[in-house]
DNA sequence: CCCTGATAGCTAATCGTTTCGCTGAAGTCT
DNA sequence: AGACTTCAGCGAAACGATTAGCTATCAGGG
């Protein structure tokens, strides 16, 4: 592995000159430049990032820590993030906290040791689980979920509005007994979506039955068992709002396994679709997030911070959901059968 | 950000001692050790990987370069790889070559500059596009696809067997006019799967019609248009073998858009299912790969190399596919309608 | 009591860059 | 012609760790 010294020796110049050529950081006469370039090519010199970073105190690394890599929603974020990170000239270090606060803690420490220039974090813990020092010294953008009281930039969606839109749609179809299967209540996403749904019902003088509101892990299996339980009872809801795409798959599976039909027997709406579910039948009625836009925006904010073109102290960007009507919901009156 | 010197000063010892404590690399008396540990805790010292790596010439980084991050198949690999990499004490740097050899070339160079200790590569180019020097000095495992003549360890599936299994299944159902939509022919995966299918047909004295064999990019859109074209013609095949899961979705969409029904009008089988397609209706008949096992195995081989517990010169592990019967195929005689 | 051997812990060199400050040749002005 | 600028290019000091090699201390044997 050739070093800058080898190049300098071969080209008959100092290492400073080689560095100047590499980084275009000072004028170098055409002759010298040519000699250096030749030497670089012949020796196949590639600068050592370790050395450069030690000196510059930069790493060219951006960390992305997502909550659950098995969830296509996050897989989609990873995809967008990789592209954005590369476009900004960084490399992506990927972590999966698997919805476990302890794992997340280890990840944060690892990100620090790696000297990542910045990180995009989908936080998994409750607000009070974070120590302020876990964030200082490293540019941070929170994605999708926020941490109350934290001073990092955030990019989120309007969860409350998402819940409201989905519930309004179901209400417009005439449903009155609407249930919800949502994620862990300490997460801003779960809580916001549920609150939005309750808002929408309250606006029409309604409230969900207590037994029709259930929360659990953001996973297919969790949703499956909760749904089986809720749907098995005689006073089951006529429509259900599921807080995320993976859970919606679980719910549909539960419905099918109980011998119920969707949408004839039960209407299902959700928030956050799962990639590749284009083939899911019936197609889910859901509110969608502009995942790629959100991710790009998160990285723009992050790079802004890293490169210190900082404007305001804390920036929060909220994306609005859009309702996509599929085939998983029907008007109530036709539910008689 | 505290450095080792700060810790040494605070604990009243030399940096060498701090280093010894950190790495447990020499005996340190209990008293000193205690002082050092306290100082480390109080200063919240975390060693700089950049400095350590410069010195040790290691980076604790493993690169994963996949061919197409938008493909759930690779998303699944990413998921498994992140877990395996973390379990071995490394961090994962993720790249997406997007099936573009040029991008892949840039990635290889980047991996080199980053000083990654090793890489897992899903190669996208033809064998002759690789220069030997792009691989030397960095431990490499090729995953899923191989490069002829390359001396890296490989973990692949038996593509030929996968094609054979799928085709045999269709043949057993009585199909004779079987077509195939496959990926780029310079890739070992595409070629192997097609060869397997041809093998199976040849074993029964059959051969596919030339117009029934089409290749294109490993993407949904590509498959969609090729399928529309092939299915539109009057002598269309009665069954079709699609070389990958994402393409299968495109084919199913094309079939539906042409007003054809699957499996009544056409049987579809594929290799490599897409995660989350559990909800796809009808469920795809396909050969599946043990993705997690393959990925784990790839990382085991890689870490072996990195940590120089090398056994044989080159190791190749081939996984066998398994046929999973869904609902997307029917016996030929019932195709009359 | 001195010499030896063992060893805890220190000093300083080193990894491969970047970058500050310097040198000295060439150019400009009076 | 002398003094002053300019600036291409160089030398060497960082950056923060690891580690080879050394020093000093101490115990034990002769």
Largest sheet of chain A: 6 strands, parallel
What is the chain-wise order of helices and strands of chain A? HHHHEHEHEEEHEHEHEHEEHEE
Low-confidence stretches of chain A: none
Number of E-type strands of chain A? 12
- Oligomer status: homodimer
Q: What is the terminal-to-terminal distance of chain A?
A: 74 Å
CATH class of the largest domain in chain A equals Alpha Beta
Class based on secondary structure composition and strand pairing of chain A = alpha/beta
Biggest interface goes to: A-B, 48 and 48 residues
CATH superfamily of the largest domain in chain A: Response regulator
Please state the average pLDDT score of chain A. Answer: 88
Apparent shape of chain A: elongated
Report the helical percentage of chain A.
Answer: 40-55%
Instruction: Write down the domain tally of chain A.
Output: 3
Strand order, sheet with most strands of chain A:
2-1-3-4-5-11
Report the C-alpha radius of gyration of chain A, rounded: 26 Å
Quickly give the CATH architecture of the largest domain in chain A. Answer: 3-Layer(aba) Sandwich
CATH topology heading of the largest domain in chain A = Rossmann fold
């Amino acid at each position: 592995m050739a070093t800058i010294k080898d190049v300098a020796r071969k080209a008959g110049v100092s290492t400073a000159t080689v560095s100047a050529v590499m980084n275009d950081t000072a004028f170098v006469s055409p002759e010298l430049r040519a000699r250096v370039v030749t030497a670089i090519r012949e020796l196949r010199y590639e600068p050592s990032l370790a050395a450069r970073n030690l000196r510059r105190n930069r790493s060219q690394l951006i960390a992305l820590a997502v909550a659950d890599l098995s969830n296509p929603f996050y897989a989609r974020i990873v995809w967008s993030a990789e592209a954005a990170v590369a476009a900004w000239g960084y490399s992506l270090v990927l972590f999966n906290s698997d919805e476990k606060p302890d794992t997340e803690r280890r990840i944060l420490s690892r990100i620090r040791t790696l000297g990542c220039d910045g990180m995009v974090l989908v936080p998994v813990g409750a607000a009070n689980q974070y120590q302020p020092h876990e964030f200082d010294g490293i540019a941070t953008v929170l994605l999708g979920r926020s941490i109350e009281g934290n001073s990092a930039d955030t990019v989120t969606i309007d969860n409350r509005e998402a819940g409201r839109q989905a519930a309004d749609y179901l209400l417009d179809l005439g449903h009155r007994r609407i249930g919800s299967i949502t994620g862990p209540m300490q997460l801003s996403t779960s809580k916001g979506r549920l609150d939005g749904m309750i808002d929408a019902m309250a606006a029409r003088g309604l409230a969900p039955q207590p037994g029709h509101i259930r929360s659990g892990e953001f996973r297919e299996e969790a949703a499956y068992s909760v749904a089986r339980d809720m749907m098995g009872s005689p006073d089951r809801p006529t429509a259900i709002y599921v807080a995320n795409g993976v859970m919606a798959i679980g719910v549909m599976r539960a419905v099918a396994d109980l011998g119920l039909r969707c949408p004839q027997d039960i209407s299902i709406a959700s928030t956050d679709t799962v990639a590749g579910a284009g083939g899911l039948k019936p197609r889910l009625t859901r509110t969608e997030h502009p995942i790629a836009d959100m991710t790009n925006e998160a990285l723009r904010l992050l790079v802004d911070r890293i490169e210190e073109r900082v404007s305001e102290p804390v920036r929060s960007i909220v994306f609005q959901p859009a309702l996509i009507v599929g085939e998983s919901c029907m008007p109530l009156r036709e539910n008689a059968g």
